[in-house]
Write a structure and sequence with these properties.
single chain; globular; alpha/beta; eight-stranded parallel barrel
Length: about 290
């Protein structure tokens, strides 16, 4: 099966009342685990590569690895560049075949955010690539992007329509009180703000900072208009904790990496399976397959 664009996957979400899960990966094991979960749940899925993951794995290697996974998959897969801040890297990803990218110019002033996002959107449009952008600032830490918890800026509904119209993006990440990474205190989500934004635009809305929210909070966000949910930190935690456990459990004479990594993959798969059920995307793969 081919790689799907973000626009294609999100086209079915609002009318069918679910969100597509988007999961960060950092190597083959967690990428395969995410897809295994999607296959077991018969769900569409988004594999998200951060700039750090690309630097770690290599742009060409990462792209062709996911392409190979997608070609033998029975469910729709989108490869998405997450939180791109380097315009040159984003364009290289588009050139090589990424079907979806995020340009995160949210740290810039509103007018500059529009200008930078528009540049990427125009370039991506020429390559049949979807574009996600961010309006407002989601707090917490996302690799090299750090926003102090008290410095996050919630998305202003008044800015949404002109931003979308001037940038022609395919999805908008909104700041409604979530943070990247695990929460240090209970989140205070602004559901009224989300409902207002969803009520004035048909542009698919994205929730960042998904790790640590309760199932009910996810479901309420989706019922109010969220169509893509990002999860990263929770997978890293599950991956690393299981690897530590296996290192302590297995004999010091064991040297086969697969003995360590199979339980790790299983742990990541279980996390993703649960999230896909919460997001309501389980059983929705057939919506995309002719």
């Amino acid at each position: 099966m081919r790689l799907f664009t973000l626009k294609e996957l999100l086209a079915q979400t609002r009318s069918n009342g679910f969100a597509v899960g988007a999961f960060n990966f950092n190597n083959y094991e967690d990428a395969q685990a995410i897809v295994n979960a999607a296959i077991s749940q018969n769900a569409p899925v988004i594999l998200m590569a951060s700039s750090g993951a690309i630097k770690y794995m290599g742009l060409h290697q990462l792209y062709h690895m996911v392409l190979g996974i997608a070609e033998v998959s029975t469910v729709p897969i989108c490869l998405h560049l997450d939180h791109g801040t380097d315009v040159d890297l984003i364009k290289k990803a588009i050139d090589i075949g990424f079907p979806s990218v995020m340009i995160d110019a949210s740290r810039h002033a509103y007018a500059d955010n529009i200008a930078i996002t528009s540049e990427i959107s125009h370039y991506a449009d020429e390559h049949n690539c979807s574009v996600e952008a961010e309006l407002g600032k989601v707090g917490g830490k996302e690799e090299d992007i750090v926003v102090a918890d008290n410095a996050d800026v919630l998305t202003d509904p008044e800015d949404v329509i002109p931003f979308i119209q001037q940038t022609n993006i395919d999805a908008l990440a909104v700041a409604i009180g979530t943070v990247h990474g695990f929460y240090k205190k209970d989140p205070n989500l602004d559901f009224a703000r989300l409902e207002k934004i969803a009520g004035i635009t048909d542009c698919p809305l994205v929730l960042h900072g998904g790790s640590g929210l309760t199932d009910d909070e996810f479901k309420k966000c989706i019922s109010l208009g969220i169509q893509k949910v990002n999860v990263g930190t929770e997978l890293k935690s599950g991956f690393s904790n299981t690897l530590r456990q296996m290192s302590e459990k297995l004999s010091s004479d064991e040297f086969d990496p697969r003995c360590f990594m199979k339980p790790v993959k299983d742990a990541v798969t279980a996390i993703v399976e649960h999230k896909l059920q919460v997001f309501g995307s389980d059983g929705k793969a057939q919506l995309y397959i002719e």
